[in-house]
Design goal:
Residues 211-224 have a biased composition (Basic and acidic residues). GO terms for molecular function: monocarboxylic acid transmembrane transporter activity. It comes from Quiscalus mexicanus (Great-tailed grackle). By secondary structure, the protein is an all-alpha fold. It has helices at 3-9, 19-34, 45-52, 56-72, 74-84, 86-104, 110-139, 144-186, 188-195, 205-226, 234-252, 255-260, 262-278, 280-291, 296-321, 330-350, 354-382, 388-417, 421-460, 474-478, 483-488. Helix 2 (19-34) runs antiparallel to helix 7 (110-139) and helix 15 runs parallel beside helix 17. Mean pLDDT is 80; it is low at 1-13, 203-227 and 465-490.
Amino acid sequence: MSQGEAAGRGTAKPQDQGWAWMVLLAAVVLQGLTLGFPCCIGIFFTDLQQEFQASNSETSWFPSIMVAVLHGGGPLCSILVKRFGCRFVVMLGGLLSGLGMVSSSFCRSISQLYLTAGLITGLGSCFSFQAGVTVLGYYFVRWRTLANAVASTGVSLGFTLWPLLSQYLLDEMGWRNTFLIFGGILLNCCVCGAIMRPIQLASGSLPQSAKPKEEPGSRAKEEQLSNGASPHHPTLQQHTKRTKCFQMLQKYLAFDIFCQNKGYQIYTIGVTWMMMGFALPHVYLVPYAIHNGVEERKAALLISIIGFINIFIRPLTGLLSGHRVFTGRRIYLFSLAVLLCGLSNFICVISAEFSVLILYCVILSIAMSGVGALTFQVLMDVVEMDRFSSALGLFTILESTTLLIGPPLTGLLVDITSDFHYVFYTSSFFLISAALFMGLSFCALEKKNKLREASKAHLDNPPRYQYSEMSTEPKAVNQSPPAVEYITSI
């Protein structure tokens, strides 16, 4: 049953009122359960190392796979949403997340955790989160921006509560029983999905989405028939399959936008490079603090501090960036936030005392709030909205690749050197270089676009001259003002 069929069977709901606010509440809980959950994995890092006698690199693969699948499963989630509807996909995600964590409690090797907690739980979280965000677009029109901002506070709540709960359960029951309880908690995604009842879609939206798919195939079929080929001819069938495959890639992975849109190209490369270092503090901050003598409960509190500050700073950052002053300039705010993230890592290198680490968490949380609030907003600025879903598909696939390999490679470096400082050196290198690349590249691109517009305006509207008695002479007619003077007048 497709999303349209599911919507058709549901009762038409008034948007921006009534049940829509219950759906918003479910979305807040959903984001806390899914996006907030990976932040607590670092608390179990030391226990998992001791349990399975694994290195830093081997242990870090488990949270890396979870986060990478959570971000990179977007295209698959979009296909399922289109086929079965948001409600079904959210509940399927909750079932997979709970099953993955329950299975993890029985694992006997670190590699089994890669499959259960990493792949299965990560994929389930991806389904629940992205389908939950999608359904908000159906329930909210006028208050859609507010709804998305409120829903994103669930991430900050998850960042605050998951570490505290994790440390308490770990101390009381051990990591296996904790993972078992986590499986039951994540099943609440199914409850959130049940609240997201189908809503009647606008009439005429379905034929529009179906039309582009039928035309290329029909043209290919007519062309083959005109050449005398049978509709069941193997060549025609292969061509049709290739056409459908190309259409699927074009819809969910916008390679054409990547090749043609310089802004999207720069931003995607910059964020992909940034993600090599962005997740490292979340994975290694707690092990680093424990390694330097900080009590385990205090070490877990550090992650909660980051989440607590995010609750207040992220919405403020979103409101600030939405001001008309920053229209077209949000990429520079984003680059500044990434740069601050990179510079803040040097605080951990200076000292590992608990008070210093609290200062680090405060500054990092402020910078992270800017990154989290602006990541998708900047993407909306650089691509057209009718191709946004396609651009988002390729964007999440690429960033999930570096999210996957970043922590294990850094863990390997820590294993070789036995020095946790390299975690923060590596994170700073990727974050600072990505911030400079994006900021300077967009600045150069903006200047290039201004030059192009100035040149185009000069050709379309040639300057008028006050001709004198000598105006018929060729030199006076062909004379043009200096290019530099024209550009500086804009």
